[in-house]
């Protein structure tokens, strides 16, 4: 991912995490990647971001 695109995707995932507060971060990220057609193997990185954001919210 290009840095600009990467930042936009990360911000989007973090905002959606704050809104939806998913119970299963891995499933949430898989659905996000499929819906928004994020290319590459960034699921692990995005899952980690979702888990960190959920930790902040608790």
TrEMBL record:
It comes from the Bacteria. This is Uncharacterized protein. It comes from Ferviditalea candida.
